[in-house]
Amino acid sequence: MALSFGKAAYAKVIQRLIERIYHNSPLQDSLYEQAVHWFAGLEERQQQKAELEQQVFLFENRQQQSKKSEQSGISRHLKQAETLHKSFEDKIEEEKYQRYMDLQQLCRDILSLCQGDSFAETNTYSAKMLGTIQLICPTRGKHITKENQKARHLYKAVLSVRLLDRLVMDGLVDHPFIMARYEESKTLPYSDETPYHPYRDDVHVPVLMAAILQDIGRCHPICQAILKGPEGNFDEFRELEADERITFLQTSYSESINYVQQALATGRYMGRDKEERDRFLQSELEKRELLLLLLKQAAKPQHGIGNVLKIPQVYTAMVLSTKHNYNYEDLPKAALALEKSAELGRLSQQSVDAFLKIVGMFPQGFGIPYIPKDSDGNDMERYEYAIVTGLYPPEFKKALCRIVTYSLTYQASARGCVLSVENNLYFPQARRKLEIVPEERLLEILRKLVYNFEERMSSPLIPRSWHPNDYFLNQKNQNLWNKAVTLQN
């Protein structure tokens, strides 16, 4: 059951989730900031560990070779060395466990927001989260790259669990551990109140972890130096040279694996039942193996389970682009690029088909201008604004939207709409319909719909898209996912 929030509160909760994963703050408490700190201190910790082990080894050797009269003094020094060594190991282990528990709680919090009591409810909650991420990220101005960099991990993670579910439902996953937990959970309620749910805790959580940690290796000093330069003054969003890019990708991949293996513990069993403890430890081991398998196979997905991470990664890299040539109108091309990758054999065709069935052509939160129809079903000689708000559109090029302007006036969304290709101005055949409308009338429409004069001056008379961020920033307009009558257009 997803948590219930007020209109404005929900967007703030999503912003906080984003910041718990990737942020730049004085507290340095986000997952990615902590990883930068962990990687930076790795060499020093290894040296400290070696020195403490050396001390124990030296006193053990001395004890074996010393005279009887020297034994008590050496034993005392040995005990001190062993205590220091154990204290160091315990501290490292506790930090690893705390990182794991923080990550697990983060994943549970994500699931509480994107998982419902039914398939339809889950899709609505997931669409709401994805759409909110898109709508709180800037689509104009100088902060696009930085904000998209922060948000893309959460966006990708939600898409990864939805893709996994689709592949499982379609019988396209043959991983024994995943399928066993799925079958075990079929009759169980998926609720925050349930202490243990096999599919949620043993499959969904590791998949979310893998999606969030997929790029954690970029926090390694080698990657940071490539991105930001030795003095930290390079533009990290610039296009890398070919040799830089190869080193960056190889290091990021290998260090992401290292982070999972060295920086994170597994769960701890708290009871006293030996059989229960053995089952728990075995399950923790299998969850860790699933997490590592997803990361490793995502590097070369082909037809394997790695597509669960790779396809959302490719899609998110375009929808929440960090390139300087970012163009909002290009967002729907992300789905088309996936189709092309599948045709070229870089991604599994079946997995891409499953993913596109979920997302369609238009990303959640994308602003679409469209031609409305009158009560007789005839096209009007104007356009209105809608926002994409639904997963699983009836057809790839059709979009499940909320209508946000009526008679060229902004209102809180009360009606849904399935936009046809013929009346969606993203497509040329729809734009051609308005070419007969006089320029004065098109200018009048533009004046009423566009927020500010500067934007109005640079906007085409017949737009392919619109930027809904300003509309969404108004708190009363943030409830785009409540139940509403849906029209066909």
What does it look like?
The protein is of the alpha+beta class and 489 residues long. The protein has two domains: 107-359, no CATH class; 367-488, no CATH class. It has 18 helices and five strands. The chain has helices spanning 7-21, 31-40, 42-65, 71-114, 119-136, 144-169, 176-185, 198-213, 221-228, 242-263, 274-299, 307-319, 333-343, 349-359, 428-433, 439-449, 453-458, 469-473, and strands at residues 367-370, 384-388, 399-406, 409-419, 485-488. The chain has a five-stranded mixed sheet, with no helix packed on it. β3 and β4 (409-419) form a beta hairpin. The protein is elongated. This is HD-GYP domain-containing protein. It comes from Alishewanella tabrizica. Residues 42-98 form a coiled coil. Keywords: Coiled coil.
Biggest sheet architecture: 5 strands, mixed
Strands side by side in the biggest sheet: 1-2-3-4-5
Q: Which value, in Å, is the CA radius of gyration?
A: 27 Å
Distance between the termini: 33 Å
How big a fraction of the residues is strand?
A: 5-15%
**Which assembly state applies to the chains in this document?**
single chain
- Beta strands, count: 5
Derived structural class? alpha+beta
* Inertia-based shape: elongated
- Mean pLDDT figure: 93
Taking pLDDT < 50 over at least 5 consecutive residues as the criterion, the unreliable ranges are 1-7
Q: Count helical runs.
A: 18
Query: Please, how many domains?
Result: 2
Helical fraction: 55-70%
* Helix and strand element order: HHHHHHHHHHHHHHEEEEHHHHE
Coiled coil: 42-98
Protein name: HD-GYP domain-containing protein
Keywords: Coiled coil
Organism: Alishewanella tabrizica
